[in-house]
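Record RNA polymerase subunit sigma-24, 412 aa.
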Amino acid sequence: MTDAQAAVTRAHHEEWARVVATLTRRFGDLDVAEEATAEAFATAVERWPVDGVPPNPGGWLTTTANREAIDRIRRENKRDDKQKAAWMLHDDDPPEPTGAIDDERLRLIFTCCHPALAMETRVALTLRMVGGLTVPEISRAFLVQESAMGQRITRAKAKIKAARIPYRVPAAEDLAERVSGVLAVLFLVFNEGYLATGPDTPPVRHDLTAEAIRLTRLIRALLPRDGEVTGLLALMLLTEARRSARVSATGELVALDEQDRGAWDMTLIAEGHRLVRERLTVVATTGVAPGRYQILAAINAVHTSARDIRDTDWSQVVALYDQLLRVDSSPIVALNRAVAVAELDGPEVALAAVDRLDGALDGYHAYHATRALLLRRLGRSRPARAAYHRAIELAGNTAEIAYLTRRRDQLG
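=>
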């Protein structure tokens, strides 16, 4: 890769959201902003290797995208003449300094994650408008036909325009709720990368986990005092740190108790632990109870602090799950707590807790995989095999299916 190509790639990661956000504010149209930004980057691919990388890549891209947008508006000739005239007055304005438009990126994120949009639409729109992923990349990530994904994004932008969804950061009284919606989108993207679904999909999609982490870092830079943003970033880092140890050379999932902890990324773990300690200090000094992502990050911090699975402080893990249940009383949290209870109080106690969740989680593969593990530990091979079989039917991740199949077949 040449220096110019590397500069374009770096600018795409660092400047795409800034440019789209700036044009969205100026023109009030996501379509115009997206297409003009894409054209600006295409121009950079052609020009930078010939003319050299400009000293201010973000400013160059913003100026170029502005001109592309104005040219498109002129061609369409569908705008109000007065509105067009106002835009044209700014045709040669110098680009805004990079630091001045951080709030515009935040407005863009809140617009893409507006609760009026369906969750899958929020995910697609955020990856396209904020992350800069192409429609083919997004469609491959979520196993959707490219044409269908393109239509989904197009309809989302049309809905934002038709419903006049405001391009702004929510008011203070609405901010916490709206931030939680943004974090849910990013967590969904991360989880799809962490445990990717589909028979023709790699078991771990590093491109998606990396993009989710990058966008969460962006949110934290914009909202540094939000505890749940910090908690989600810590959770992602501590999970991503184990990526290289999670799948074997034969493509099989490696359970936590069998992972080579020497292969974990200690730099990511150190950063995740630092963020968890930062939040613990805030909680201790302010008395403000931690949220869901902060507690999940703390649980992962306990796991990644142990040099060996036998060193894990299971009593602390259970206590953290008890705290999490007070925040999120979902059956999935109760299921995960039961896994920790099995290490503390034995598989029989844990199985009783899991069986109480039967009606709520029958269609969830991890419920049956957990039952299979506990039944296996209790020496109940026949029901364990049946539970493995049901888990395999429901699982969508190729590495997880390979792991569950081997464990089932070991029972004979």
